[in-house]
What we know:
mainly alpha, 6% strand, two-stranded antiparallel sheet, 3 helices
Amino acid sequence: RRTISLLILDLIGATAAGLRSPLADAARKSALEAYGEGLISIWLTEDRSSVVGAAMANSAAASALDIDD
Length: 69
């Protein structure tokens, strides 16, 4: 349980750090353009997209700086 909690915190930190990177910004814009607005949150923003669009934008932000475990 502790390991899972630490991994989630790592993911949140990596996402926050990478959120304003050019890669994450491009992925968020592309996701909104390709998949439109929806109900799923794009983390740490006010944007929402479809499940696929949010997954695309969120994963790009989390891995943008290559600091996540």
